[in-house]
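Below is one protein, fold included:
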Amino acid sequence: MKIKNKILVYFFTLMSVLSISAVLFFSEMSRLNRLEERLSYSYTQLIRVKTINSDLNRQMKELADVVFLDKNRQEFIAYEQRILAG
């Protein structure tokens, strides 16, 4: 085989390997981008759930304070009677 032919074979082999590597690299980058978007969306949903959870806990505590504390219990009963009467 002539030197020119050997160089051409090596060149095309190298270019083929390089092309395959580039395709694999860009496909991995797009996959990582999709995973990053999914992770970002999941984190946003987690923040919303934590906010809702803290709001519900606060409201439950306020309700428990109104219902179970004697001082506020009388006020709550009076308020409830006014609502039911009027």
User: Anything to note?
Assistant: The mean pLDDT is 89. Residues 36 and 67 are 46 Å apart (CA to CA). The two ends are 106 Å apart (CA to CA).
